[in-house]
Amino acid sequence: MDKNIINTNSIDQIKEIFVALDFAAFKHRHQKRKGIIPIPYINHPIRVAALVLNKIENPDIEMIQAALLHDTIEDTKTTIDEIQAKFGSRVGEIVIELTDNMSQPYFVRKKLQIEKASKLSYEARCIKIADKICNINDILYTRVGWIKSRKLRYIKWSMKVIDQIRGTNKEMEIEFDQLIFESEKILKTKLFSY
Ligand code: ZN
Questions:
Q1: Nearest of 69, 33, 68 to residue 51 by alpha carbon
Q2: Of 15, 97, 100, 183, whose CA is between 20 and 30 Å from 80?
Q3: According to the model, what pLDDT value does residue 8 have?
């Protein structure tokens, strides 16, 4: 038997993941991440889901689907009802946990992310860490067009969010800390309090 054939147990799960990927790609189809060279928005949730898939031991399908969908409600016209009808209530709950209330002012939303982080479910915490890793990576290594103080503000705020949920996943937290260490070198600023 050809060992590269997807076995019958996995094929349904792969299909479920691709339904979420296809849905997210459609919803974000007109969006680009701002920057000097704009990147299609969908690259971001794909990155987040790939990180979760690689770093979490035995992730479940819902966690991967939620990672792919995590910005659809916040950044597109997608509703919670749509997500729940298509992917079930658990995926919907995780995505809602990761959605900022966009009717609130920017600084309130940022403050609430820190305050609410420790109350998130395990799945939402894993995706949250992956999201911050991907965003900081973009800030450091792609041409986002931000001045240094804005980059530092985002990174310092992310550190406060992640500090609330340490102990969620060791591997991702090590990767996050490594990235902060790299940020210190690239931005020539002390961020850790050693
Ligand atoms: Zn995101």
A1: 68
A2: 15
A3: 82
